[in-house]
Structures are given as structure tokens and as C-alpha cells.
Design goal:
The chain has about 260 residues and is of the alpha+beta class. It is built from two helices and 18 strands. It folds into two domains: about 110 residues, no CATH class; about 130 residues, no CATH class. The protein has a four-stranded antiparallel β-sheet, with no helix packed on it. A three-stranded antiparallel β-sheet has the order 2-1-3, with helices on one face. About 0% of the residues have low confidence.
């Protein structure tokens, strides 16, 4: 493969991967608790000694060929999203740092998605039916016969204390992970710990009942990025076509006499 084509194809692939990330962010713009991903790239050239050397644009001449490659890294932006009032007493949002801890079938996972509900057994659970952990790791039971809709009046205080018909039944367990890379995305807006990282209890939590934290995705900015990426991708496609046409013309004229 010609060096020019190889380098253009490598750059086009990087644009394609960035497009996938942006498209996924936009697809979750209305998903409660979703945290957008960002992707970064670094170009390298492999030296004659086999060592990878980081390079910056403008890149070297196409003679580099297959020694040129691009690595990419995706990271999650954990900045808070806007709060949206729902009026549902079982919807809660965190103002500030921290994550709700949830007991999933594969172990403890963490989320900012607070659209909870009550299971048929009377436990506070996620939309998937996974128990929301209280302090100490136990379940929070929502049971009672008096007051409110369905005979139960649920109050969740700013400090995460859960009361049912005026009786305290537990306190939401909220943990923080200040170390970068401590959490990795799994699915459905959940994260799990990486590399044996341990969460730290958040003492000064601020919980808003009847609100949901929405995705920290700026739809307008995302659409602008997609347009920019598509234009960049198309430019590299044009480079590949142009180089291919030049090569084809050169081959057809080799050995031709005038």
C-alpha cells in the first residue's frame, strides 16, 4: 500500500472512531444520569530501532508508510448534567460529587441515574430491579399502609435519609471516586470499579428528591462536532482517491514511448 494512502486511511479510521463516540453521546442525550465519552488521538512513527515516537502534524513525508499509526483513547466525562424536575418522589438526583451504589447480578455497580422504583417485595430498586444500597450495603425497604399514593408516603432528605410515612428506614449509600480511571463504563448508565479501586463515602451529600440528573451532553455542540468529523473523513477519502488515480495513471504510462 502506498505511504500516502496508508497515512490517509489511518487518519480516516481515527475520525470514524471519534464519530462512533459522538453518535453514542447524542443517542443518550435524554438518558438520565448518562455521562458522555470523549476521545483523544496520538500519531506515532515507528523508528528503525522499533521504538514508537509520538509525532505532531504536519506529519512526515509519505515514505513513512506503514511505520505511521494512530492510537486513540476514550475517557468518560463525569461532570454533572442539568437537573430536571419530575415530581416523582422516588426520583432523586445528586447535587455535587458521588454515585449511588447498586447491587447488580454481577456485583456492586455505581450510577448517577436516580429514577428508582419499588419492587414487589418492597425494596427500593433501579429500573432493572437491582436493589439500591443503603449505608452498610443493605437494602432500603419501602413499606407502609398509611399516607400518600398506594398507602406509602416516601420522603428522601437532602442528606439521603429515606423516610416512609415519617419513619426512617435507611440512608442512601453515596460513594465518590476521586482517582481518575477508577470507574469504567459497563452498560445502561452504570460503572464498575477498575484495578481494585475503592470508593470513599461522601459525607456532605446533597440529594434532590423529585428531580433527575440528565445527560451531560450538549446536543448542539455534538451536532457541530459530527459535521466537522464528517468533513474531515470525506477529505481523507478524497486524498485516497486522488493518490489512487495518480498511481493508476503512473502504472498505465510505465514503459510507454513517445
Amino acid at each position: 500500500m502506498a505511504g500516502e494512502i496508508y497515512m490517509a486511511a489511518a487518519a480516516a479510521l481515527a475520525y470514524e472512531k471519534r464519530l462512533e463516540v459522538i453518535a453514542n453521546n447524542l443517542a443518550n442525550v435524554n438518558t438520565a444520569g448518562f455521562k458522555r465519552d470523549e476521545v483523544s488521538f496520538q500519531a506515532y512513527l515507528t523508528s528503525a530501532e522499533g521504538q514508537a515516537q509520538a509525532v505532531q502534524p504536519p506529519y512526515q513525508t509519505p515514505q513513512a508508510g506503514s511505520s505511521f499509526w494512530i492510537s486513540y483513547e476514550s475517557r468518560t466525562d463525569f461532570s454533572p448534567g442539568p437537573l430536571k424536575m419530575s415530581g416523582n418522589p422516588l426520583d432523586v438526583a445528586l447535587n455535587g460529587k458521588g454515585f449511588f451504589s447498586v447491587e447488580s447480578p454481577s456485583g456492586t455497580v455505581y450510577t448517577r441515574r436516580g429514577n428508582f422504583t419499588v419492587s414487589s417485595e418492597g425494596a427500593l430498586v433501579t429500573q432493572e430491579g437491582w436493589p439500591v444500597q443503603g449505608e452498610g450495603g443493605g437494602e432500603i425497604r419501602i413499606e407502609g399502609r398509611n399516607g400518600g399514593p398506594n398507602g406509602v408516603e416516601v420522603s428522601i432528605g437532602k442528606d439521603g435519609t429515606v423516610q416512609v410515612n415519617g419513619r426512617q428506614v435507611g440512608r442512601l449509600n453515596v460513594e465518590d471516586f476521586p482517582q481518575a480511571g477508577s470507574l469504567v463504563r459497563t452498560e445502561k448508565g452504570y460503572f464498575k470499579t477498575a484495578g481494585g479501586a475503592a470508593g470513599e463515602p461522601v459525607e456532605d451529600i446533597s440529594v434532590a428528591q423529585g428531580y433527575l440528573e440528565m445527560a451531560n451532553v450538549d446536543a448542539v455542540h455534538g451536532m457541530v462536532e459530527m459535521i466537522e468529523i464528517l468533513r474531515g473523513y470525506e477529505s481523507y477519502q478524497r486524498v485516497i482517491r486522488a493518490v489512487d488515480e495518480v498511481n493508476a495513471k503512473s502504472i498505465s504510462e510505465v514503459g510507454r514511448t513517445t
